[in-house]
Amino acid sequence: MHSGTRRAARLLAAGLAAALATGLAACSDDGKRAADDGTPPKVGFVNANSELRFAVEMAEGFESGVAKVGGVEQEVVAPPIVDGPAQLQMFQEMKQETTDGISVFTLSPELFAAPLAEAASNGIPLIAVDNPPPPSSNVKLFIGNDNYEMGQQLADAVISKLPANATGRVVMGTASPGVPVLDQRANGMRDRFKEKLPGVRVTGPFDTKQDIQATKVAWSALVKANPNALAFLGTGEGDGYTLGEIRRETGGKWLAGAFDLDPKSLQLVKEGHLVLMSPEHYVKGALAGQLQAQHAKNGDPLPEGWLYTPGLLVDQSNIDEIIKRQATIPEKDKWFAAQIEKILSDPSYLRPLSSVR
Fold first, then answer.
1. pTM (predicted TM-score)
2. Residue 64, Cβ neighbours under 10 Å: how many?
3. Cα Rg for the chain, rounded, in angstroms?
4. Over the stretch 168-196, which tens digit does the pLDDT of each residue have?
5. Distance CA 286, CA 333 (A)
6. Among 2, 126, 177, 270, which residue's CB has the most CB atoms within a 10 Å radius?
7. Looking at the structure, do residues 270 and 236 belong to the same domain, yes or no?
């Protein structure tokens, strides 16, 4: 990056941090945003799914973040399956009543672009979570990972278990081809192998489906078609425990890696069948809930930009600690408290929206 560009990015990050700090400092003015009739403000979260573990983690985090502020009502809605049109209808209904702030995690960002822009023009404070908002949506705050970086980190974990001169094939799969965050994970993995193990050929990502039964069929076919593969890597939640189960069932010697912290996947990590990269979805939800509630309660502007949240590699070295953390919401709150405080106070976590990847 050119030195002038770096300096501009640092200045923008510092400005965003200052705006955020102002919002946090104003929290002492209890009830400033309460309606004339004394009813508390209300914020909402429109989630992509109500069943998948990664989406549930975000919802739990959002609820915890709002509760931490206190004095703010909340509502979380989501379709039972990933269904962009159904989720959009929920957003349209929510924005009629929840005007103090809405956070959105969707796997169909382009579908939401115009409705989000309309909501923004009507003065509804908006936050995009996990999946970056289209520029035309006019959403100014995004909370999420560097998915390319997480792809690199997962690849590094697998590469560390292979010989320095390894040759052969690595097969990638993704549950939702074309979803930017998943594509970035795949790009990060592919580029890291090219950089560190040029003798390894990376193929895919192949479509490994969202439905878990279809995922099992897809990965089973890929494993059968590539009996000598060094590793199989997925970009999503279902890829993880499916690959781990196939490896356990077949006695496979290949390596397996994927994302997210489904309880079944955690057990397979403990048994040595899998390594995971956690996007730490709870943190993203908690940050969105806390910032949204503080804004609704105190009337301070939300910061603008990309609030970066790091991922976490989960393997046998830390699996027992992560299993304990994931057991209850209080354990998660205790674990993440220091990290959330750091993200909200360290200017390096606030970046230009244009740098999201």
1. 0.88
2. 20
3. 21
4. 999 999 998 988 899 999 999 999 999 99
5. 9
6. 126
7. yes
